[in-house]
Design goal:
Strand content: 5-15%
Distance between the termini: 6 Å
Oligomer: single chain
Largest sheet: 10 strands, mixed
Order of helices and strands: HEEEEEHEHEHEHHEHEEHHHHEHH
Shape: globular
Helix content: 25-40%
Structural class: alpha/beta
């Protein structure tokens, strides 16, 4: 039973697009590596990176001249960086960060075959590239893990005590727990995030949909409860496993989190800091302007406040909404000065939500069938 379940867990985890959505080539006369079917940009580097497991993975690095932080993004299942290219670009601009995305071994044009241990080697190689090639410091890195990507994200985060922050998007407690509501961790399980979450010192944001029928929201909620340094989670009402980017609150809440952690001192003893505070939306309007600009640190009643504050009542972005009627061809811009531009924030958000939503709908960031137990109906126990 153990061997069969281990095989099922491995089968559950990896569904690389077949065929890959892109090719790589060397551009003449620049000699730079490029991804096919996208317009070449000078602010995007494409590279191959060798891992300690002997594979060669493909990664891209998007440079934002105004950024002080860098996001290392581990994508979900049934996707590769060719499909994620434009989503990465939008996130880099809207969040004001540099962004590195990479393909796991066996995904896209990366060599090898995917496995749990290979994904750990993959993210480690990508992180090492950020350090050695781009001079990025540990305390300026935000790790972002979506779905299966929460596995390598938390594995690395548990080993880097001075990370700036961690974002978990529809994360899993473990591979086996997606299929069965087991109470203990078995040796043959994979991506044992439930055991690694308490080891993460960084501020943690968890985003999960309340109607996720692939990875139940209880996974996200339990991981948030286990985190040391909690930030106000985002439970998107009505959201499923593959559409959270379509909700206006997704980008707003993510940018609020980036802004909060950006204000943290670069060199700090995290054990001396209180967890980030959960703030009740109904109380935000009553708070003073001075308090609204401060980082959200908590001293108590975190769980009670989060239940009241994080049930998002906003509906997914709709082309028939009032916002979409106001949408124009304006390009998304970044506030280079760092000051709030309240009069234009909503316009930028509307435009960005719509563009990001189109991308998500067109590529499908995660195949909703990729984790369902039905995939194992013909598997003999």
């Amino acid at each position: 039973m153990g061997s069969a379940t281990s095989s099922m867990a491995a089968k559950f985890a990896f569904f690389p697009p077949d065929p890959p959505s892109y090719n790589i080539f060397v551009e003449e006369p620049t000699g730079k590596m490029r991804i096919s079917d996208v317009h070449p940009r000078e602010d995007v580097d494409v590279m191959t990176i060798n891992t300690k497991k002997g594979n060669e993975i493909v990664a891209l690095f998007i440079k934002n001249p105004s950024a002080s932080l860098t996001m290392l993004y581990s994508h979900g299942n049934a996707a590769d960086i060719g499909q994620m290219y434009h989503v990465f670009s939008e996130l880099s601009v809207y969040l004001g960060v540099n962004l590195m995305g990479y393909d796991y071994s066996g995904y896209g044009q990366s060599s090898g075959k995917p496995s749990e241990q290979d994904t750990y080697a993959d993210i480690e190689a990508a992180y090492k590239c950020l350090e050695e090639t781009y001079g990025v410091k540990e305390e300026d890195v935000i790790l972002y893990g979506q779905s299966v990507g929460s596995g390598p994200t938390l594995d690395l985060a548990a080993r880097l005590p001075n990370l700036r922050a961690v974002v978990l998007h529809s994360p899993i407690l473990s591979g086996l727990r997606v299929m069965y509501p087991v109470k203990k961790t078995f040796w043959f399980d994979i991506y044992k995030n439930i055991d690694k979450m308490p080891l993460v010192n960084s501020p943690v944001l968890v985003i999960h949909g309340t109607e996720d029928d692939v990875v139940d929201i209880s996974h996200g909620k339990q991981l948030w409860e286990l985190s040391k340094d909690k930030y106000e989670p985002l439970w998107l009402k009505g959201g499923n496993h593959s559409n959270l980017e379509l909700y206006p609150e997704y980008l707003r809440h993510l940018r609020k989190f980036i802004s909060a952690v950006e204000k943290l001192p670069r060199h700090r003893n995290l054990t001396e800091l209180s967890p980030l505070k959960t703030i009740d939306d109904s109380k935000k309007a009553r708070s003073s302007s001075g308090k609204r600009d401060k980082a959200r640190w908590s001293t108590g009643q975190l769980r009670e406040k989060s239940r009241r504050s994080t049930e998002n009542r906003e509906k997914p972005w709709s082309r028939s909404s009032t916002y979409s009627r106001e949408k124009s061809g304006r390009k998304l811009s970044v506030d280079r000065s760092g000051k709030a531009r309240n009069n234009t924030d909503s316009d930028r958000a509307r435009n960005s939500f719509d563009r990001l939503g189109d991308m998500v709908r067109s590529v499908g960031l995660c195949n909703v069938d990729c984790m369902k137990p039905a995939a194992f109906e013909n598997f003999d126990a």
